[in-house]
Design a protein that fits this description.
- By secondary structure, this protein is mainly α.
- It has one domain.
- Helices cover 73% and strands 0% of the residues.
- It contains 5 helices and no strands.
- Helix 1 packs antiparallel against helix 2 and helix 1 crosses helix 4.
- It is elongated, with a radius of gyration of 23 Å.
- The mean pLDDT is 85.
Length: 108
């Protein structure tokens, strides 16, 4: 690699991919990351004058790590777990705490 920061850029991309694919089975996650790593290595070897911009452009064309992990989930037929969302009770507690705090101090 002739680009000065190519190793850091690629490592960061693969780390993001690993985080996004954390819910995949271990074997499939390792295969996905190994396949992407191999694809990146082939593309970098084919670049005559590799620069950081070339590496970034290639990774951009490759796709967002979240999309790659989502595609792999779809291919495996895995369901996506929804993220926890704050309910009305939590939101109400956050909004009403500053209002009722002075009342508690006065009663104390």
């Amino acid at each position: 690699m002739t680009a000065p920061h190519a190793t850091d850029i690629i490592s960061g991309y693969l780390a993001r991919l690993d985080c996004e694919a954390a819910d995949l089975p271990l074997r499939e996650r390792r295969e996905l990351i190994a396949g992407i790593r191999e694809h990146i290595a082939e593309a970098c070897a084919a670049m005559p004058e590799e620069t950081d911009a070339d590496v970034l452009n290639f990774l951009d064309r490759l796709g967002d790590p979240a999309e790659l992990a989502s595609d792999e989930r779809d291919r495996l037929g895995l369901r996506v777990q929804s993220r926890a969302q704050a309910g009305m009770l939590e939101i109400g507690a956050l909004l009403l705490t500053p209002l009722f705090w002075p009342v508690g101090v006065i009663l104390l």
